Amino acid sequence: MIQNHEIDYKIYGEELQFVEIELDPNETAIAEAGAFMMMDDGIEMQTIFGDGSQEQTGGFFGKLVKAGTRLLVGESLFITAFTNTSQGKKKISFASPYTGKIVLFDLKELGGKVIAQKDAFLCAAKGVSISIEFQRKLGTGLFGGEGFIMEKLEGDGLAFAHAGGYVLERDLLPGEILKVDTGCVVAYTADVDFDIEMVKGIKNFMFGGEGLFYATLKGPGKVWLQSLPISRLAGRILQYGGSINRKEEGSLLGGIGNLLDGRE
């Protein structure tokens, strides 16, 4: 088993953040394809199959299977490893892909495992494993907002994920239950019980505008919640974009509607 590399880091910015990682000689950081921002001279980049948690052994088929699981959680077939091949300390930075916050997971302090939403992974110390986590409950998989498959981060090193808007970190006591919009769940530790519950009341069901289900997170454990899921942001952009017009577009009704919306 490969030990996770011990990396130093600093997070910059407020809403559009990036994380700067300091690598000692021969230390390696791994990152999702497309997350790279900048690096010092003396760092070498290598694109590899799989998650970078172990040496690429086991033949082509084993590598392909390991890499293929990453597609199921919305990540690329490839991951990029950045190694400091010089004699001194070097720095490399990775940027969040949309407005929000970068979340740090110290896996050693979190029981060695965190379950996160798909496509959340940004970068980590070499040795951290990024794979898939299947939802055991049928209802959670069908209606939980993230489907049957989520992202599993394992190891004893540092890992970084990105989330939308403001990120709330909360510790749940044994038996404590928190009800959350399904899209607002960023991650939770392995001891948290994640389930879904149907919205009660016919008026809430039909006119509440909050969806038919919400997630229930039962402690003990730690959870991370985001105030602005990327799906919600994308939906609003489409709603007010030029590709979605009123049926009465060009008519008096359409003009009045646009004035009321603030689109005129």
Helix content: 10-25%
CATH architecture tag: 4-Layer Sandwich
Number of domains: 1
Order of helices and strands: EEEEEHEEEEEEHEEEEEEHEEHH
Low-confidence stretches: 138-148, 202-209, 244-264
Q: Which strand-content bin applies to the residues?
A: 35-45%
Beta strand count: 19
Descriptive terms for the model:
Double-stranded beta-helix; six-stranded antiparallel β-sheet; disordered C terminus; 41% strand; globular; 5 helices; 264 residues; alpha+beta
Tell me the layout of helices and strands.
Elements: E1 8-12, E2 18-23, E3 28-32, E4 36-39, E5 43-49, H1 59-71, E6 78-84, E7 90-95, E8 100-106, E9 113-116, E10 121-125, E11 129-134, H2 138-143, E12 149-154, E13 158-164, E14 167-172, E15 177-181, E16 185-189, E17 193-198, H3 202-207, E18 213-218, E19 221-226, H4 230-240, H5 252-261
Folded structure, characterized:
The chain is an alpha+beta fold and 264 residues long. The protein has one domain (8-234): Mitochondrial biogenesis AIM24 (Double-stranded beta-helix), CATH 3.60.160. 17% of the residues lie in helices and 41% in strands. It has five helices and 19 strands. It has a six-stranded antiparallel β-sheet. It has a six-stranded antiparallel β-sheet with strand order 11-12-9-16-19-14. The chain has a four-stranded antiparallel β-sheet with strand order 1-2-7-4, with no helix packed on it. The longest helix has 13 residues, at 59-71. It is globular.
